């Protein structure tokens, strides 16, 4: 029976991938021959998958959770180097560096859009695809809390504890846990006057602008592999990232897609017990 972690384990030593686009850092869980690559959301980092990585990583499965460029411990690269397609090429380069031809993919939020872009580029490389609460156009009201979370970038706080308190007061993380505290402490860097997030606001802004030029639905037909969409059933800011209409249209369009509803909001879904159970069963 699958066992789900309830308290964070020590952060594993980071991996380092020197890619043509820059150096990516990542966390590795397990050492099995089956490989799962996990990609986080817009302003998040690899610790988004701390709980899932500890749960799924084993002697049979290796889970590699990356820091996208401009986030976490990865390189900040020049303007014009971001966007879903460029991040997708980084995922393929990570797989090449790991020496795996086919792998499973798990993406949360923007990571889900990157996964769809990856399928368009190299569907044959992906065995199974998991999209966590992103597939089409978010409902406008759901974007307000996300914009508030992005505004933390660049803000200086007097201490790490003050930074964590400011994040908690946004009220978007439900429920708060040691995993979320580790996620936000991971991105803290000392600066003049206190601490700030090391995540680069320009990288995040470029990805936001890029998203506004894309049609996610145009990527759905590329998802020929078995695909699991996990939809957060609780609203965020009064709206849903995955609307009911997009959910239904996606299943009708993507050839081998299925959907599971998770009793969480857009942030809580990535560390929810049921999310772990659904992914473990789907990838087995």
CATH topology: Rossmann fold
- Approximate strand percentage: 15-25%
Low-confidence stretches: none
Q: Give the radius of gyration.
A: 17 Å
Tell me the domain tally.
Answer: 1
Helix/strand structural class: alpha/beta
- The share of residues in helices is 25-40%
Instruction: Return the CATH class.
Output: Alpha Beta
Distance between the termini: 12 Å
Q: Any idea what the CATH superfamily is called?
A: Alpha/Beta hydrolase fold, catalytic domain
- The strand order across the widest sheet is 1-2-4-3-5-6-9-10
CATH architecture: 3-Layer(aba) Sandwich
State the helix count: 9
| Sheet of most strands | 8 strands, mixed
H/E order of the elements? Answer: EEEHEHEHEHHHEEHEHEH
* Average of the residue pLDDT scores: 95
Tally of DSSP β-strands: 10
